Amino acid sequence: MKRAFGNIISLMVVVIVLFLIIPIPPALLDVLLIINIGLSVLILMITMNISEPLQFSIFPSLLLITTLFRLGMNVSSTRLILSNGGNAGSVIKAFGSLITSGNIVIGVVIFLIIVLVQFIVISKGAERVAEVAARFTLDAMPGKQMAIDADLSSGLINEEEAKNRRYKIQKEADFYGSMDGATKIVKGDAIMSLIITLINFVGGVLIGMMNGQGDFTQIMNTYSIATVGDGLVSQIPALLISTATGMVVTRAVSDDSLNKDVIRQFKAQPRAILSTGLALFFLAAIPNTPHLPLILCGSMLVILGLVLNRRLQRTRLAEELAAEQGANETAAAELPSESDYYKDINNVYSLLTVEPIEMEFGYSLIPLVDEAHGGRLINRIVIFRRQYAQDMGFVVPSIRLHDSSSLGTNQYVVRIKGEEVARGEILVDYYLALEPASPLGEIDGIETVEPAYGIPSRWILPENKEVAEIYGYTVIDPLSVMLTHLSETIKRHTYELLNRAETISLVENLKKTSPELVEEAVPNIVSYSMLEKILRSLLKEGVPIKDLGTILEVSADSLNHGRDVDMTVEQIRAALSRTITRRFCEDGQLRVITLDAEVEKKIISSITRNEQGVYLALGPEIMQQLIAQMTQHLKKFNDLSQIPIILVSQVIRGYFSKMIMQFFPNVYVLAFNEITNNVQIQALGNITLDASGAFDQQMGVSV
Known about the structure:
Elements: H1 2-6, H2 8-19, H3 26-48, H4 59-83, H5 90-100, H6 104-153, H7 159-211, H8 216-249, H9 258-267, H10 270-284, H11 291-332, H12 338-341, H13 345-348, E1 357-361, H14 366-369, H15 377-392, E2 399-403, E3 411-416, E4 419-425, E5 431-434, E6 446-449, E7 456-460, H16 465-470, E8 474-476, H17 478-492, H18 494-497, H19 500-511, H20 515-521, H21 528-540, H22 548-560, H23 565-575, H24 577-584, E9 589-595, H25 597-605, E10 607-610, E11 613-616, H26 620-634, E12 645-648, H27 650-661, E13 668-671, E14 680-687
Parallel strand pairs: 1-2, 9-12, 9-14, 12-13
Antiparallel strand pairs: 1-3, 3-4, 5-7, 5-8, 6-7, 10-11
């Protein structure tokens, strides 16, 4: 029983198809026609109460089923009209008599108007909207996915939420694609209704005259009532379904149900309602106009406008009083004057403190930071700190936020240990639109460059946001722009933020789970200063230090055998191969640039050791060739979401990485043994040397 109920929709579709073949008695046809009308009303009500199209994702399939159901009813009613002397049940007769009202011409004209409105206005419009929505949704998919990746990288969302948002984007594209095809069914249904109506009328009249059912006037009256009634009970559900189709494809920018959206947005415009009422009063003063209806409608609108305007003013007054009360509380808690504060010499020492991270911003950016004014920057920073700790194993220290009169009103500065490392400028009342490779159209805005990644962009007005997304731009709000720049700056300078105190804190945290390892290794074999240097080297090249147990264990084994810190770091990287693979690999693929075997041989032969340590002594000709070729090959990563990676052997990885970091700070160098075996490596280029390339031992580059 349960299985049969689970397949009830499939059984209903089979029964609907059988209606096209099996005759239906008039009584059963009456019930089915009422069900058809009720189902159409239900679907329309659902589409008016959803806030986004995916809440009714079955609509395209349901559209096909309801259309097939109507066609089945049409065929059955046509069979009864032509074979039963125009008698197709009480429902069709009642609707036909209601429309014709004793006049065949009026009935036919009204029926044709309903059909043409449904076909030309609603069905045609819904078809066009669905077609445009499907095309623009597909075009906007890359930009939306880039926005998800940006939120994920800045710590605004986690991997699970990013996965759900990508799935929703894919479902939305599939839905609009299905709706584009489903609207063609609605259009075909309207055309078919006209054809069936013509067949019913002409065929009925011919059959009535051949069978001698009465004189010509009686036959025309009988079959016109039946034809118009049949067409009407078919077109009313079709009109409702077409309206529902238009509702679904036009709900892209809604925040709630249609009822709530209409009421809320009309209530927000009391002046427009009041002006409309006054305009109706003006029309009522013109001679020969319908004075009473205009005065009644105008009075209602004026009263409604005054009530809504008074309510809106009370709301604004309450907000102003709350803001004034907050300002008074702030003034009451005001600190002593600056001169009085620094009379105490102990307070002067506070000026010597260097903050690990601080962010200064201009006056216009205060609302983005101040929680009292709805600022969300602090909450977003907390989310980023948590996500970064989970990914990299390092806790970002507290960030000091304060305004600065020395900056422009829209500027901000990020400082690491008191020194400026990044600067940007944002427009609070605008959105930043990142330009795609090939935009579908040009959008008006102020040209600029995205501060975190250097992407060409435009500051656009909020009303142009939807148009920009349709054209393929990735649109970001000002707060996200500032937070992304801050987070990317912190990531680049994380290794500078790791100090001795943080190193001790990490070891103490490890002691909770691995006390024996910590007791054996620290500080007997691995001193805190040496461990700090190792962790800084890993963070500088983007390697997570979350697996501190493995790092400490490998460090103890390596340093116990007399190896230096650089060799120890390379051994740790090999032990963290799975972590490094997860960090830099996407979807089981790794796109890299490789070095020719001859290049690696020359680099190995150029490794030189002296009192200051180990360095590479490469001739200027070889250096120029390497830098020039890398510059060309790295351009291939511009269209990829992956960061640039150079893959080399373990022997030269550390030295080569230090060398190119001077020229390409955003390029990572990995060794073959740091990549797991299940990764597919794709070489985008290979760096070689010309036949004339030779070493010049007189001039080297120390790293």
